[in-house]
Design brief:
By secondary structure, the protein is α/β, with parallel strands linked by helices. The protein contains 15 helices and 9 strands. The chain has a 6-stranded mixed sheet.
Length: about 375
Amino acid sequence: MARKRTLSTLDTSIAYEAVGLDLAKEDVALAAFDSDHKEPYLIDRIPYDKLYELLADMAPTLVAMEPCSGAHQIAEQIQELGHEVMMISGRHVQAWVKDHCNGQKTDLNDAFAILNLAYDRWLTPIRGKTREECRLLALQASYRQLKGQRTKTMVHVKATLHAWGFPIRAGSFNQKVLHELIDTNREAFGDEVVETLHLMINRVRDLDHDIATVLKLLTEATKRDPRASLLRSIPGFGILTMSRWCAVIGDIARFDSPKQTMAFIGLVPNNRITGHHTETSSGREARGQGRMSKRGDKMLRSLCIMGAGSLCLMVRNDRLPDCPFVASIKERLASPRPWFKVLVYVAAKLVRIATALLKYGETFSFEKAGISKAVLKQWELEQAKAA
């Protein structure tokens, strides 16, 4: 973008159709179109305080941006000024710059790309998150960070002991036994190594306490969401799955069908069709579908699959009542399909159930789960007549 066309500010007396923002840490690159669409109005760098003053004086318009760090809080402040906010994926911006700006990535080119993409009516924008959803995401990130530190510390202690000829059984980390083992072999390890290993083991104990504290805070924050009471009734849905669902999915009414929710999470097949043939991992076939798309939030998808695994174990051990829902899972478990494909099938079923519960505001029922909508409606009519 030619620098001679850049401005220091915008004329707020002009009605702008759309504004594109490329966010940075301390300032913003801005591009705007008026109703004529002849030339864009460009500002290379404008501080955030000046940006808010400028938007406060402008007539309500569409403001587009990328969902980078702090974008949800910035979007909230812009919405309070009376403007509509649209978030566009960075992948689309990168592709637009590559095709229209010869791959010259600058802040101004990114802002101009965001501005043009705001006019694409076929583009699916990214949903802005509320402050409560951002709180849930922050707690989940802290929980994952502490769990990762605990795992790395345990692996380090076990690897050190194994290097000295004291292998520890997989899945075992009895802190009392480890302390005694280290003290017993103090002469072999040396005082410095012994003190370090004791410090690392005590760090695992402290991390266990911190993880429990964060998990308790996450549970309290999740319970404030009215959707949590419905999701909690689903077998296989724990506090981590519920909190991630509440933070990522948003309003369930924006999905027209449960299949759209499954596609949003990435639990649907990925089809690649060319020449009336479907390309699959096993080769080109006339009919068939590819592997799981794996689009959307990776953590929510993993949690749904892990919940499906725990549900399958409960079904296999006959810990659930007999019903069409459990019977369908038993049928899949008895089939020669691979274990992971069964898990994906059950996870997709749980997502469909969660979507239905949130849409109708009902808790999970083994009697209704696994029954088609038409049969369920007929069953409810018969119950109403009998009453």
